[in-house]
Specification:
With 317 residues, the protein is an alpha+beta fold. Helix content is 35%, strand content 25%. Helix 2 packs across helix 4 (128-143), helix 3 runs antiparallel to helix 4 and helix 7 (205-224) packs antiparallel against helix 8 (227-233). Strand 3, helix 2 and strand 4 form a beta-alpha-beta unit. It has helices at 2-5, 72-83, 106-119, 128-143, 151-156, 192-197, 205-224, 227-233, 240-243, 250-259, 283-295; strands at residues 12-22, 31-47, 52-59, 89-96, 159-163, 169-173, 179-186, 264-267, 274-279, 301-306, 314-315. It folds into two domains: 12-172 and 310-315, Ribosomal Protein S5, domain 2 (2-Layer Sandwich); 179-306, GHMP kinase, C-terminal domain (Alpha-Beta Plaits). It is globular and about 60 Å long. The strands form two sheets. Strands 1, 2, 3, 4, 5, 6 and 11 form a seven-stranded mixed sheet that branches. Strands 8-9-7-10 form a four-stranded antiparallel sheet. The protein contains eleven helices and eleven strands. Bound molecules: L-homoserine (HSE). The site of L-homoserine has 13 residues, from helix 6.
Amino acid sequence: MSGAAAGPGRSVATAFAPASVGNVAIGFDILGFSVDAIGDRVTARRSAAAGVTIKAIRGVVQDLPLEAAKNTAGRAVIALHDAQPPGFGFELTIDKGIPLASGLGGSAASAVAAVVAANALLPQPRTQLQLLQYAMHGEAVASGSMHVDNIAPSLYGGLVLTVGIDHPRVKQIPVPGAIRAVIVHPHMFLSTRQARAILKGSVEMADFVWQTANLAGFISGCYTNDLDMLRESFEDVVIERQRAALIPGFGEVRRAALSAGALGCSISGAGPTVFAWCLEQHAQAVAKAMVLEFSQHQLQSDHWIIAVEASGARVID
Ligand code: HSE
């Protein structure tokens, strides 16, 4: 897509990659959707010396590693470079638009923007699937695991299912046009590593069956525009209950969203951001109810209301 279309031979390119909601309640580590309202930008510049350096980190988060191998954007471009060294190096400038530890896929967006920008400098651009795999290395630096549910939607755009890690297969899932996603980010930090570390290593058989049914119901509801099926299947019975205590007021926020008309509401990725899906006519009321509940738990929040559209990472300059 845009990264490949940007034209070989450039010496500098800037790419934007959107934020994303991981898991989408029922697809832990495999399902996510892009949130184009915010994102990260990375400028890649050719450098004479081989390898990857980070010149600067700006924007809403600046206290991140400048050593490329320890930085999500840097590590992703090292993977791109090392897979097939192009004979020059990359100097990266990262502009963070996504708050740190927010559950909005900030590390994934930096990694994705970086590989899309770097790709625009290559004489022979790599495929989207290769970019996905390079970006996965960046995500692993941040969270300690190679999950794809933020990387894939940030790169491809829209609601995206990814099957497989070593040989990922990516499918963009259609979302009924009447649906709006409400995203509410309470002003607190939650580390993905920490939110992953608390998870149990096994799942009860009954929960496994329920969760599997919900994932299948959710995906089929999207394909068939079946809003009742979406509502019925929009429930995470495995991960959410283990993480709920990490987010003050989560249970009340979720109940408020459902009372205001949401089809479903859950944690965005590892949290603390919470998201809901609803019909367009309920979106303002759902957002208001969620923000109010957080404020009653002494948490100010930002919110966005978006259509889940397939606009992924792209070269912007
Ligand atoms: N699927 C991941 C998780 C998303 O829930 O831990 C966080 O980046």
